Amino acid sequence: METIEKFRLDTRDWLIANCPESQRQPIIKDQQIWGGRRRSFYCEDAKLWFERMRDRGWTAPSWPTQYGGGGMSSEQAKILDQEMKALGCRPALYDIGLWMFGPALLEYGTEEQKQEHIPKIVRGEIRWAQGYSEPSAGSDLASLKTRAEDKGDHFLVNGTKMWTTQGDKSDWIFCLVRTDNDAPKQQGISFLLIDMATEGVLARPMELINGDLEFCQTFFDDVKVPKNNLVGKLNEGWSVAKALLKYERNMMSIMSSIVEKEEGDIVAIAKHYVGLDSSGKLANNSLRSQLTEHLMRAQGDALNALRLYQQHKSGVVDGGLGLTLKYLSTSEQQHKDELLLAIMGNRGLSWHDPIFSKSEKKTVKNWAYNKAHTIAGGTSEIQLNIIAKKALQLPS
Predict the structure, then answer these.
(1) Based on the structure, what is the number of domains in the chain?
(2) Is 220 among the domain residues?
(3) I want to staple 380 with a disulfide (CB 3.0 to 4.6 A). Which of 79, 82, 293, 374 is the partner?
(4) What is the pLDDT of residues 179-217, one digit of tens each?
């Protein structure tokens, strides 16, 4: 049997030999490779890196080989992640299907559904969107009104979803729909898969606070959906939804490692903008204290992430830890953004004025966009309620 240390060395050697130098650079948002029917590559190296990772199943390293995944254990997948980070390798593929939908489908889908959808996610052939929130159903998601009527051989879907990330660029969407109007809120919901190319589906982009058009409102007008696109049992989609939210929270807790970052670490940025005093310390006592507190909290989040990994490895998992980590890590990202703007002073006032540098404008745009991180995957307020109830066993 291959030892873990040999696996690490072999993995490192393969990455060195197969990851082009251009794909070992800091992540740039416009150069991220997203899957889908309209997939494109900004350069040949990106295409080569994607194809090599895809062919080994390493776009989804811990998924079963029978569906095109890498078949790795959780420990091996962790080592691959560590070695990629050590070399600065960019993720070869981005997709909600990889992070959220695929794991849920492996847990709840039929064998036919897995065979149909999982290999396409691994190969980057289909791009997925999420259809959960609605105009009147955000934190109270179970009050959703998008309905799917049973028409014998198909469902007829009508309604609308909000905050559909990249909905206008996605090929399929997984949706929570109401299939029993008379049942209690959570008991009349089903989990349905819908091809975005189906007649009656429209994704309309919405401008965000930072000027981007990353989210859409998605409309369903008499959309016919085959019965075999139902995941799980009819009216029991809430169980699938909760499982998927667990994977979404995991994704949110590691988001900072897969997105474009500010140029330079925060300590170097502080030294550049604030300068050092005669003793070599940051020349602002208040900012120095805030920076120290941030670094301590960030280290705590990293240790909690390692703790969660070790729990999964041992098979004894504290369900409250993932909930807590999502809350803490997304909140800390926003603390960091606020601190960066404080460090930059009047250089952190705009993301479009030409007098500011590209990195300064990017930092301000990130500050605005990252406000979404404490909403996506469950708002922080709702998250605290869940932590109190499920992790701490406090009374309602």
Answers:
(1) 3
(2) yes
(3) 374
(4) 999 998 889 999 999 999 999 999 999 988 888 888 999
Instruction: Find out whether 117 and 105 touch, Cβ atoms under 8 Å.
Output: yes
What is the domain range of residue 372? 261-391
Please check whether residue 67 is in contact with residue 122, taking contact to mean a CB–CB distance below 8 angstroms: yes
Burial (CB count within 10 angstroms: exposed 0-12, middle 13-18, buried 19+), residue 105: buried
In Å, what is the CA distance from 310 to each residue of 70, 78, 87, 373?
A: 20, 10, 23, 25
CATH number for the domain spanning 289: value is: 1.20.140.10
For residues 215 and 270, state if they share a domain.
no
Per residue in 102-153, pLDDT tens? 999 999 999 999 999 999 999 999 999 999 999 988 878 889 999 999 999 9
Does residue 232 share a domain with residue 265?
Answer: no
pLDDT digits (tens, 9 = 90+) for 24-79: 998 888 899 999 999 999 999 999 999 999 999 999 999 999 999 999 998 999 99
Q: Is the dihedral of CA 8, 48, 67, 316 positive or negative?
A: positive
What does the pLDDT read at residue 255? 67
> Do 193 and 174 form a contact (C-beta atoms < 8 A)?
yes
Give the start-end residues of each E strand in the chain.
Answer: 128-131, 147-150, 154-165, 172-178, 189-195, 201-206, 215-226, 230-231
